[in-house]
Amino acid sequence: MKRPAVISRVREDLAAAKLRDPAARGGGEIALLYPGLHAIWAHRLWHALWRRRLRFVARAGSQLTRWLTGIEIHPGATIGRRFFIDHGMGVVIGETAEIGDDVMLYHGVTLGGRTRDAGKRHPTLGDGVAVGAGAKILGPITIGARSVVGANAVVTRDAPPDSVLVGVPATARKRNAGESTRAVLTTPEYFI
Fold it and tell me: What is the pLDDT of residues 153-181, one digit of tens each?
């Protein structure tokens, strides 16, 4: 007998949080006390309503989630599996943002737009991207898979897969072979 998809996804989310947060002690604690997961779980509901054209209800629900968690995810944003927001306060994800699988954001990250024009206005993050605290990724750009964006970087240009992006404006370099994401995010020269 197959498990219901919702239960499988919740278990997958809990495992992703435990894998990415060294302070995580157990599934119960994560499920009850991690606002990033609460925001993601709520987003799935609001996104389903958005896709069914219940736009006002979806927006109202996302604003309630923002008020409860401090994390703003537009119900139109597309988010992949095993997405994790660590701490989360101040995270903003715009309507046309697309986030791949296994992506991690720290607090204060903005996936925002640079124009009021209709259409694609927000970034696309490939699979396995990690974004440091306070980073701003702006406009309809693409950050390639397995890239790392340093804390407080301001990214306004596309980046190829396996990049490290730091600075204001951010510049990209190729990741070194074997360079771990955690090492990149905790090395002082990658902070602003």
Answer: 999 999 999 999 999 998 888 887 777 77
Q: Taking the CB of residue 29, how many other CB atoms lie within 10 A of it?
A: 14
Using CA atoms, how far residue 56 sits from 50, 62, 73, 88, 173, in Å, is 8, 10, 15, 25, 42
Q: How many residues does the chain have?
A: 192
Beta strand extents in 13-160 (DSSP E only): 72-73, 78-79, 84-85, 92-93, 98-99, 104-105, 110-112, 124-125, 130-131, 136-138, 142-143, 148-149, 154-155
- pLDDT tens per residue across span 22-40: 888 888 999 999 999 999 9
Longest dimension (CA), the chain: 52
pLDDT exceeds cutoff 50 at 1: no
CB-based contact 151:185 (threshold 8 Å): yes
Cα separations (Å) of 104 from 16, 30, 141? 10, 16, 18
Q: Assign 113 to helix, strand or coil.
A: coil
Per-residue pLDDT tens digits for 49-79 = 999 999 999 999 999 999 999 999 999 999 9
- Partners of residue 149 on adjacent β-strands: 131, 165
